[in-house]
Amino acid sequence: MTQINLDVNGKIHEIDVDPDMPLLYALRNELGLNNPHFGCGLAQCGACTVHIDGQATRSCITAVSAVGNGKVVTLAGLGTPEKPHPVQTAFVEEQVPQCGYCLNGWIMTAAALLDQKKKPTDSEIRDGLSGVKCRCGTHMGILRAVKRAAEMMG
Amino acid sequence: MGASMGKNAQATALTRRSTLKAGGALVISVGMPIGADAVLNIRTAFAQGTKPPLAPDQLASYIAINGDGSVSAFLGKTDMGQGLFVAIGQMVAEELDVPFHSVAVMMGDTATSVNQGGASGSTGIWMGGRQMRMAAAEARRVLVEMASAKLGISIEALTVTDGVVHARSDAAKKVSYAELIGGRYFNVQLAWNGKLDNALYAPGKAQPKDPKEHKIVGQPIARADIAPKVFAQQDFCTDIKVPGMVHGRVIRPPIAGAVPVKVDESSIAGIPGARVFWDRGFLGVVAENEWYAVRAAQQLKVEWSQTRPPFPDAGALYEHIRKAPVRKRELGKESGNVEEAFKSAARVIEAEYEWPFQSHASMGPACALVEIKNGQATVWTGSQKPHFTREGVAAMIGVPGENVHAIWVPGPGSYGRNDAGDAAIDAAVLAKAVGRPVRLQYTREQATGWDPKGPASIHRARAAIDNAGNVVAFDFVSKGFSRLDVFSREGRPEDTLAGQLTGAALRSGDAFRLPEQSYDFANKRLAWETIPPLLDRASPLRTSHLRDPAGPQVHFASESFMDELAAALQTDPVEFRLRFVRDPRDIAVIKAAADKAQWQSRPSPRRDQTGNAVSGRGIAYAQRGSTRCAVVAEVEVDRSSGKIWGRRFTVAHDCGQIINPDGLRHTIEGNIVQGLSRALWEEVKFDPENVTSIDWMTYPILDITDAPEAIDIVLINRPEIAPSGAGEPSTRPVAAAVANAIFDATGVRIRRVPFTPDRVRAALS
Predict the structure, then answer these.
(1) What is the pTM of this model?
(2) N or C: which end of chain A has fewer CB within 10 A?
(3) CB atoms A133 and B662 under 8 Å
């Protein structure tokens, strides 16, 4: 067990954990931030995505000790109903999900993508989101929502 | 309060006053025709203070008016993300004449809802909604009768606006639902048909509204559960925790059918608090901390029994099916004399089609939490059918069903009997064994590798053509693994992995499916045959229901074959179908899809393309129960790579009355994309020892880079026809539409799913 300081959603949390434990388990179980989801534990689906220093990162394979001073942002820290991130607004307006378990991955990946790429083309959006999984087949809604968010973000 | 998910509104919103103190509450108009005694009788007859026992023949089991006039609707079904609860809320609000936002639909909690079958066979609105509509109509009837007594106005002279009963001629003469019964329970008997599950039906005396009067039904009302998910405010079943809980994991054998013979507990001695539970074939670990449970499951040294690898070589799957003994043959209604017709045929056209095992591969591995206290168990589960989860847990831990409370909480995706049912039973076994609440989540490998599978099958079709080029006989038989090795619900131990691993013998049922289309051939025979499972216990290739069980398989074959006939007779595929389709609603969806897609009449294949990238279009249609759906696919084929892009889909859909067009569109879009994924990519791989599709690399699904450019949907609304299902039907024609489009583009017929680049490239070369 090791004492680790994690900077999550603007707050420093001190936790005492196995340093090899993936960040996902620290967020979910030590900090009670349920939104990054366990989908595969293999970095193949994106359900566990968080931002570390603005980069979309798969928390299921990121050892908690490897985060260092990185600033972690989860879906809960991305925006709130009062102050939503445009991607969140767009996903609600487009009524995107079915089961919704994958939403975290799409929203966090799209937010990082749109942060780095203004006014992306359709194929840039598709390529930028490639690899994130949705099993219910809401791909069309996801693409509509990310385009809508891109327009909102100018 | 909007129509919301189960957790957002609780039955406790009802205030539980003891009994009606009628005297002081009554205001009787001067000159009213009914005496005070009659008023009291009606009120005491229709309302009571304490909740009656949850019973299918009680109105209170479905509808309650809360103290503030809001409505609680208790549904024994569950929403897998298609917005069922919105549609149910609309149907209830419509019949009760209350605003939509005053209805909260609570789903899938065995303490508050009767067993209406859970999510099952696209019956959410079709059967679940039918019952809720009748219950709400009865509630309105009773409330108006109570109001009539209270106001001294005849029933005919009353109407209801936003939960207030008032005189048609004078809106000031009024009484609200809240005043009539708010906070108390209906005491009204319904005419229950004696059935539970999907078939449950318990109408009252009321007739539902004429669809012409509908104002809320038919509106595109949005889902209220999306914002909480987007803003990280809603729990999934994976997020539920209780005090004292430990984390569990189970361990599956490397060779299917093997059981542990030696378990070395010392191999996990270094992991704090890790414990092993081993009972015959069942092996699990628990730990205080989730990461420790993960590590313990990985590190535990297990010696497994020597088992003969149970499966054929994957390359021999279809040969195995061809040669396997038929366990059951079911013949549909035969018209004419098929054998005789073939004898006189000028020409016989034959083809055979193949469909692999497919996995639910839900977005996340299933999870369940079970707490057992003093012989009472509580189960939090993502299973579609919590009422059956309750029965399964009760049987597994040896308590009566009424001692188990199952609470459905949205899980990580569900399209039928996936791994959720097994997870709940596994968690119960562990919770009983360790005496602590256990939260169990599977691994990705277990989710894809060990969920019940959609069955693999072959389909033989042949047609007899006469000298004039008419189809005079049609003969179609499917042969495959039953779609129900384990029942589509986890209510009996033998239908679960934990049960089978601890001694319950598999009782594989026989079920497949016939094509559902209204093609009228003078001589026609449809049949199916099932074969025995490959392994008689705890098989990773055991089958159960996966979205539209056996439907995509059968209609891939039957609609590909119709296209083959059209091509052989050099006829346009739409015109060819319309020659034989008899049902007017079938004709309408085929025409609507073709029109919307700007279908150009000509035979397939097109022969005007050269070069590497070619495109084509194909159509397929099917019924599912009373629903009809036609799909036009436009695909692009990269001849050198074999890669298929389903560029555009046009869908015409008729499921009778549409309750919520937006919810329906989203449902259809999901079905088309999931259907496309299954057609292009999905195949459970295995070797003689075990399933080898164990993650997203070995069980790929459609990537967003391959999503269609557009899905155009034509909704045909038939308010006069009771709503039938939409959760599955549009999945059904997708694979055939794509195969037919590939043929149109290339002239090459692909008869085996999935149409992976390797397979297409090989077929084209």
Answers:
(1) 0.95
(2) C
(3) no
